[in-house]
Amino acid sequence: MSKAFQDRIIMVTGASDGIGQHVAAALGEAGASVIAIGRNEDGLQQTMERIEELGGRCLCVPFDLTDFDNYGKLFLSLKDQIPHLDGLVHCAASIDRCAPMQYIKQDVFRESLDINLTAPNMLTQMMLPLLRRADAASVVFTTCDMVDEDQNNWHAYGMAKRALAYAAAMWQNEHEEKPYRFNALNPGLVRTALFKRTFGGMHPNEVPAATTVVPAYLYLLSDDSKEIRGQSLHAKDLIKE
Ligand SMILES: NC(=O)c1ccc[n+]([C@@H]2O[C@H](COP(=O)([O-])OP(=O)(O)OC[C@H]3O[C@@H](n4cnc5c(N)ncnc54)[C@H](OP(=O)(O)O)[C@@H]3O)[C@@H](O)[C@H]2O)c1
């Protein structure tokens, strides 16, 4: 693989599993130094080992992204270790099960908004000083089909994901003249733990592997997409056959 991301430092949330783990590994293979965020230390360790096997570098940061009181500490520990951030990929998300909104308890609703909406926005805010120090950083918010489809039963998760598409546009409008950019990416259905929890009726073999959407993330993080700013995109439209 080419070392297109040589000397780039890129943070990936949800890097302990699923899409985030594959994006982190591909970035490491392409020469990036990856900051891998997640709670599960075994998962993060696995990510680090894969990246090192591929010749890359990875710093594992076990961190609960709903622990908002400790975002300041996270920033302070990173700012002494890295000069800048060239990319921030928000893959972390959570939904235990789909259910009609009328049955969703308040604590479940609020917890879902915390990880799926508040965390990506607050982490972006917290990392902005490091993103500003890069030549042209790229921030990618991960959305889902609910950005443009009114599907039932996705409650706070679906609402949060639709709001992330707006967040990307808003962040960009508020930094119109800046070299850094913000976009939202819908990977579409892929085979991960989250998929297995929520698409009970579908056989996993009916959907593509998580690796298939990795090129779309890499494209949005690369200089090739530097004109794409404040957009909400679907992976299938970015992946060349
Ligand atoms: N799979 C699909 O079909 C599909 C479709 C559309 C959109 N997406 C989106 O794609 C992204 C990746 O999803 P996935 O399918 O790869 O899910 P996944 O396999 O379940 O991975 C989710 C990741 O989020 C992390 N995470 C969850 N809660 C966290 C918290 N409180 N703090 C830190 N990390 C947390 C998990 O790590 P820990 O457990 O280690 O914390 C894990 O690494 C998500 O944004 C999802 O909404 C997926």
What is the topological layout?
Elements: E1 9-13, H1 18-29, E2 33-38, H2 41-53, E3 57-62, H3 71-79, E4 87-90, H4 106-132, E5 138-142, H5 155-173, E6 181-186, H6 193-198, H7 214-221, E7 232-234, H8 235-238
Parallel strand pairs: 1-2, 1-4, 2-3, 4-5, 5-6, 6-7
Helix pairs in contact: 1-2, 1-7, 3-4, 4-5
The chain binds NADP nicotinamide-adenine-dinucleotide phosphate (NAP).
NADP nicotinamide-adenine-dinucleotide phosphate (NAP) is lined by residues 13-14, 16-20, 38-40, 43, 64-66, 91-94, 115, 142, 144, 187, 189-190, 192-195, 210.
Describe the fold and architecture:
The protein is of the alpha/beta class. The protein contains eight helices and seven strands; from the N terminus they run βαβαβαβαβαβααβα. It has a seven-stranded parallel beta sheet with strand order 3-2-1-4-5-6-7, sandwiched between helices. α4 links the parallel β4 and β5 (138-142). It is globular, with a radius of gyration of 17 Å. The relative contact order is 0.14. The mean pLDDT is 96. The structure holds NADP nicotinamide-adenine-dinucleotide phosphate.
